[in-house]
Amino acid sequence: MPDQPDAVYARKLQEVLGGQYDEITVAMQYGFQAWNIHIPGKYKDLLYGIAAEEFGHVEMLAKMIAQLLEKSPMGITDKDVQSDPAVAAIIGGTDVQHAIVAGAGARPVDSMGNPWSGSYVTASGNLLADFMSNANAEMQGRLQVARLYHMTDDHGVRDMLSFLLARDTMHQNQWIAAARELQAENAESLPVPSNFPQSKEHTPVSYQYIIFSDGAAAAEGTWAKGEAPDGKGEFTYLSAPDTSAPMPAPTHPDSRLFGTTELPNIVEKTASAVQDKLHKE
Amino acid sequence: MPDQPDAVYARKLQEVLGGQYDEITVAMQYGFQAWNIHIPGKYKDLLYGIAAEEFGHVEMLAKMIAQLLEKSPMGITDKDVQSDPAVAAIIGGTDVQHAIVAGAGARPVDSMGNPWSGSYVTASGNLLADFMSNANAEMQGRLQVARLYHMTDDHGVRDMLSFLLARDTMHQNQWIAAARELQAENAESLPVPSNFPQSKEHTPVSYQYIIFSDGAAAAEGTWAKGEAPDGKGEFTYLSAPDTSAPMPAPTHPDSRLFGTTELPNIVEKTASAVQDKLHKE
Amino acid sequence: MPDQPDAVYARKLQEVLGGQYDEITVAMQYGFQAWNIHIPGKYKDLLYGIAAEEFGHVEMLAKMIAQLLEKSPMGITDKDVQSDPAVAAIIGGTDVQHAIVAGAGARPVDSMGNPWSGSYVTASGNLLADFMSNANAEMQGRLQVARLYHMTDDHGVRDMLSFLLARDTMHQNQWIAAARELQAENAESLPVPSNFPQSKEHTPVSYQYIIFSDGAAAAEGTWAKGEAPDGKGEFTYLSAPDTSAPMPAPTHPDSRLFGTTELPNIVEKTASAVQDKLHKE
Amino acid sequence: MPDQPDAVYARKLQEVLGGQYDEITVAMQYGFQAWNIHIPGKYKDLLYGIAAEEFGHVEMLAKMIAQLLEKSPMGITDKDVQSDPAVAAIIGGTDVQHAIVAGAGARPVDSMGNPWSGSYVTASGNLLADFMSNANAEMQGRLQVARLYHMTDDHGVRDMLSFLLARDTMHQNQWIAAARELQAENAESLPVPSNFPQSKEHTPVSYQYIIFSDGAAAAEGTWAKGEAPDGKGEFTYLSAPDTSAPMPAPTHPDSRLFGTTELPNIVEKTASAVQDKLHKE
Amino acid sequence: MPDQPDAVYARKLQEVLGGQYDEITVAMQYGFQAWNIHIPGKYKDLLYGIAAEEFGHVEMLAKMIAQLLEKSPMGITDKDVQSDPAVAAIIGGTDVQHAIVAGAGARPVDSMGNPWSGSYVTASGNLLADFMSNANAEMQGRLQVARLYHMTDDHGVRDMLSFLLARDTMHQNQWIAAARELQAENAESLPVPSNFPQSKEHTPVSYQYIIFSDGAAAAEGTWAKGEAPDGKGEFTYLSAPDTSAPMPAPTHPDSRLFGTTELPNIVEKTASAVQDKLHKE
Amino acid sequence: MPDQPDAVYARKLQEVLGGQYDEITVAMQYGFQAWNIHIPGKYKDLLYGIAAEEFGHVEMLAKMIAQLLEKSPMGITDKDVQSDPAVAAIIGGTDVQHAIVAGAGARPVDSMGNPWSGSYVTASGNLLADFMSNANAEMQGRLQVARLYHMTDDHGVRDMLSFLLARDTMHQNQWIAAARELQAENAESLPVPSNFPQSKEHTPVSYQYIIFSDGAAAAEGTWAKGEAPDGKGEFTYLSAPDTSAPMPAPTHPDSRLFGTTELPNIVEKTASAVQDKLHKE
């Protein structure tokens, strides 16, 4: 539990409770991947287990936020409080809905007050793609927790973050291990989806690094020459796009959609020119 | 250009134009990563270049959608059309805003009509985290394009998708190559962020696989034993959570937030019991 | 499990998985109310318990949706399929992201594809207000499940809905019982929040039914005469609003916000009239 | 009108203008319920009348916000202002769009700047469910106004809030009275919808309190024994869930959705094992 | 009232009830402009009056939608209905929340089911900017109504649309008249805001048409030569951007944000190169 | 580049990067209008060119924001910083996601943290409507930049804003010139869409100014008498609405939607009255 209340920090902590890359997101993401999975066994059990753990982290963070808000000045009228600019400053940085809407409780929103959204969840049914998505979520999440660690001196809060950092270390490693295992078992490989027939993609550009902007330094990278990570091609290098795709003609949809098209105007303008001429004569 | 109009397919194609993991997203994501980058050179040039290429794909898809909508029946009154259930069925599957709002044009929305959102963009300033996010986006994106490939027989559309599939192959490989290069150069390593001092995380659980749910098969994975992918620890295994974190006491925030707390009730109930007793006497 | 696949029905079922008033909402709502609660004991345990049950319902629905999608035609190219208007019609009514994004899996969205939002959750810290919110959620939820029941003949689906309907019956009753218990224990009463001092509200209009529109029949209701449900006042009746609040003067904010105000114009117009006059002379 | 400008408070007041449970919400909610109603008479007139009154409250709040913003420092450059930390603190707590976007005017957003959303509106066509939703909205709304009352000392603002508190008292009572009247007239009863045939729900669990989590205190409540509020059943008590629903087999959707399934892997792995063996020999 | 039910058309009509540019939007937009206005008199009265009229249109559309939904097949189980592909097709095109959520009622959403958003409203406090925004809204709105007119043969619906088209004609004309009147009275002129001192803008590029893309035909327009509409400058023409803004150096924020910067890497790489050398020796 | 860091101002600047009316919006809006256009030539080239320029402004603003954030205190623990209320005040006004999520980088959000939304984009296919929408966007945009100009003293920032103000002057003029040119060429005229047959609108009210609210001053405007701006009608004036549209009967949808209707109640109430009577006898 925190050493002392801190409503401004409570707001910041909302990011790892209800933000794009954090506990509600990973709990729901691993849940949906588990419920939609096509194979029984270790991957399914892994997803179920970590989902359950992450729901525990949601609770841990929600309770910490409520503790941080408990005795904090939240803009409630009190002459001493109001006349102290330092306190006023603290009030300036709070999530004002913590007081007005939740009565000093946690909320399913991020640190800027945006409600958590189902659009944060990725669950495609392709496990290699999804495990990479999970590794990505754990990386962004651990990065945010590490940043938050330096924004407080509170021992109770730091203890909790220290625990979350360790679990994020575990989960990053674990999704990467799982992604490797999938590939080792030939269940899936790069490029995802690997069982889409290579013959159906336009292979001349499948491993070609094409420079579309001014910076030439990009040619120095390992993505511009040598074997590609998928082991199925060799990177080549093209200093500028050479294909100028032929532009299709503009569309002329049904006139009852009242778009602006050239045809009626030409007719009309001709007619009006004729009329003008007749009038003058 | 498409062989023929197909308003239902135009709607589906919106997913890879304006959905969570597609062309507007990657164009903006690589753009924001480039604008916020902290180092000059090859990574910056790479981000700029691919961002520019992806904006080209946005245009390519928008134009294809407009072509697919050009002559398609879109529910405009016409006796022949209305009495044909097959045509009516087609209408059932369209994005009705294509006709009503855009006059047969593309829109910055996904295949269910949700507007594209800035929350899809990831740009954290940590390049390893962000390159993993980019690899993830290209995997989910290529998967969606591969699915869309089988939902049409149109040669023009398939040609375009075939091209996009090849570029997604390239981009998946490239972000993975870039992530490896970052690690080879010691710019960053696992777990992200690697320069957060390990001493500050609760290391006893940093490599511990803890079973939180029923499925035991997860213990068979490479994430439950052996060296972790970050090379900094050894996975251990725990068959059930052993730490029962002590529950903090419930909070009692300022009474002017009018939450329900036990204290006032006890007072009130005692008072009312006393009153009751007095009344009866 | 369902008798047979039905992708159109799978889409409809999303409403009670990821819509405003359904399983994810109630699971999260009861969770946040439990984490933020100010008192230990029966109400806290109740909230925890029902939250856990509702997470179970989330899983139940997600799996049913995946089963319904398993073998369903989802617009994948196939001559027989495409030429059959009935099948095409079915495709018209699906959530196209089920196939393109989730690979035939459930998603955290409602039946029109809107992602689930944290803004659906209510947790104010005042238990009477929140239990009423819970009763409301269970009523709207049961109503939607009842409607869905008649939209399918599938025995497996109906069995699941029949189970959910029974639990919603239980939960409606239970939140109403809990709301009554809170009042019986004097923890809270109507109007919420009951411990806001009545002296601070403008009591002359606290129980006054004022007619603001044409319909006179509203005067016949029990809300227009007799004792109010809170037992603290008597309803009175006013056939039309009688107070015409004095209109404040329009605001004149800082001119550097460049709003349109009368003052500068008058000056300018006078100046320009003078100039005009001078020019003419 | 307010005694003096207060841009920080103006922001807080946005919650009851444009938040989830406030004036725009109730005005629109009662409006949609009125427009969709299936019966003429007192309920319809009630909905129309209160909707009209609530639109008046929207105006009242919007104008008060504009007055509070009129002369407030809003971060506009001015040496005296900038060097005063108290003023700077005030600026810290404002809605910066008040100045930049609205030129010191009210906006249709909540106190954290989230735009008002049509998803806040409930109008199901079932009047008992909807009147409960209305009572819920008035409770949450009055709670928020009561909290805001203590966040200011301004007499003009408190006068307005005092008036709104009184009307919320009226409206809470009124929707509860209306809900009772509906039940007294047998138009609808608990559980909602009451005319769904009870025979079609899985009645063995309709009144069963099942403990899904650790807290045993919940068994003490009136929701665990005795007659249920709907008068149609008797609460029973079950100390733990006893039904372990049989898990359905994982799904195997169309392979052209490129999900990860066990089948191809087994085939592939066998093939590759055979190849390996052959190579070694 | 409509000749007959049509649930598919009811969904389309939602666009002009709850979409970006329609009745709820204009009603709320004119309302907020009126409540925030800085001057009394004709402009204020105009805004109030049209706002009131538009709320009437909201009601008109909501009721029409409810009528269109009244007897329409909405996917409710019925063997005859289900086996008729034409009916199934109709079901494919409906807003399924009309039945499940609203019980055959109108909803505050657009034709793709997106909830109406407060972000659609424009009210800046600058009347010329806002009247242009109003004219824009009426143009997009009338365009959508005109498109909808051709998507039905129903006499009742067409009568209503015919009325709305006429009012949109009036309102387009009126906002343009009001914008002209503001300019005639010197209350505001182009460019908005006209009282921002011209000396503070970078005037060399204030009237310069610069070609940033390939198309040269744009040089033929009246925007490339001659007097500008604001009467304050002469358009000039530049065939390509000539200023290459100097690129700022990449940022190096606080290292506790754990971004990727070159510095630590160079140090680390040098150290590791030294170590490598030592090891080899 | 800025004279010095200013995280509070960086947040404000987000409004013109990722807000409703600013650089991402106009870049995408002109892009979609260009991709969907129905005619080749000058209008198309104009749209492409300005879209490209606006993408350049997006980059300019993103980089400026990153520079402003570079060395700014962002709530990172540091005793000196924390104990200084002025610094704390600054922290109060920042976008906390700038530090936590983006590591001191720009984000695709507005100044209150709302993610940029595809719903901000207007592209209808009707060029006159769209050019008016573009003029509107440039007006609101320039107004916001002008307001931001006075919220800082930083020379580097003011230089950039001064440049943007000049380009907004150009673009306002240019879209108005383009709108006039379209009309001069008879491609489109008022009211939009001008080629919708006038005979199909309810012409008696097409030019009638009807007073719907109390303010009589609106009758003084040029919108109440004289020729309408479209040159196709004469404004007339009506002091109050005279048509009282006949109210349709309430709807009675399918009873399986469980709405509240009068019929079943009457039956039920009669039955129950009969039963009551029988019981009593």
Automatic annotation (TrEMBL), chains A, B, C, D, E, F:
Mn(2+) binds at E23, E54, H57, E138, H171. One of its GO terms (molecular function) is metal ion binding. Its cofactor is Mn(2+); Ca(2+). It holds the Pfam family Mn_catalase. Ca(2+) binds at D45, S213, G215. Binds 2 manganese ions per subunit. Residues 238-261 are annotated as: Disordered. The keyword Metal-binding applies. It comes from the Bacteria. Belongs to the manganese catalase family. This is Sporulation related manganese (Mn) catalase. The lineage of its organism: Bacteria, Bacillati, Actinomycetota, Actinomycetes, Micrococcales. The gene is yjqC.
